[in-house]
Design a protein that fits this description.
alpha+beta; 4-stranded antiparallel sheet; 7 strands; globular
């Protein structure tokens, strides 16, 4: 099965983008190749751009606090495993404290680095990071991989409390819903809403099927159409029945 996550508000959309970017930084920085370390740094710049659009630290702290209060209510239920609940509560507390200890704005340590900002400005231009544009960056890329990795980790480490915070929020979100099975007749599925509001949809479909879902949703209606997947194909409905699993996730 392949899972497609569809955020239904801008806040969750931003958290999913950050999750994707942090995963890429972790992947590329662990390698030794020059191009991979370049990709890691460019991705760090993307994280700066995403976090600069809103007060991410405050938003995540507020959400963690809200989840903490919601979980406290669950203590009254005999069906809840107290050990698991305590572990989640401890994780929330640790993540919140780490974020509170973050000095200044997110990524300020990078924005104060003139050398990094000169590179960031150039990589926004197609082909702008060539050696004749940034000779000092070209020199850095020729350093020992361990030295480059140490620099990347130095720039990444102050951002890790943010990653810990939104990872908890997304974990709670993904485990919040109940999964149901449906069938899209001739590639089309529609469900009228009952007024419930979800923050994200998780749709799972057999990865062997040559189609992908296109989702349109609000609190009144959910529309899904499966279209044929292929780089050379024009958008065309997959005109066969498609069985899929759907989860409405809500914080």
């Amino acid at each position: 099965m392949i899972c497609y996550e569809h955020p239904l508000n801008e806040r969750i959309r931003t958290l999913l983008r950050l999750e994707d970017l942090f995963d890429k930084v972790s992947f590329f920085s662990a390698r030794d190749d020059t191009f991979e370390h370049h990709s890691a740094l460019v991705t760090l710049f993307e994280i700066l751009d995403v976090t600069s659009r809103a007060d991410m630290k405050s938003d995540i702290l507020q959400e963690l606090e809200r989840q903490k209060h919601a979980l406290e209510v669950l203590r009254r239920s005999p069906a809840v495993a107290e050990g698991v609940l305590n572990q989640v509560m401890d994780n929330i507390q640790a993540a919140s404290q780490s974020m509170l200890n973050m000095p200044g704005k997110i990524g300020e340590h990078m924005r104060d680095n003139e050398w990094l900002m000169s590179i960031k400005q150039r990589v926004g231009i197609p082909g702008g990071a060539c050696e004749f544009d940034l000779p000092s960056y070209h020199y850095w890329l020729h350093q020992d991989p361990e030295a480059r990795r140490a620099d990347l980790n130095e720039w990444l480490t102050p951002l890790l409390p943010l990653q810990n915070g939104f990872s908890i929020v997304l974990h709670l979100l993904r485990n919040s819903g109940k999964t149901s099975c449906y069938t899209a007749r001739k590639g089309m599925f529609q469900q009228m809403g009952s007024g419930r509001v979800a923050h994200m949809l998780c749709l799972k479909v057999d990865e062997g099927l040559p189609c992908v879902p296109e989702i349109s949703a609000n609190k009144y209606a959910l529309n899904i159409r499966f279209v044929i997947s292929g780089a050379k194909q024009k958008t065309k409905i997959f005109e066969e029945d498609v069985a899929f699993e759907l989860t409405f996730c809500n914080l």
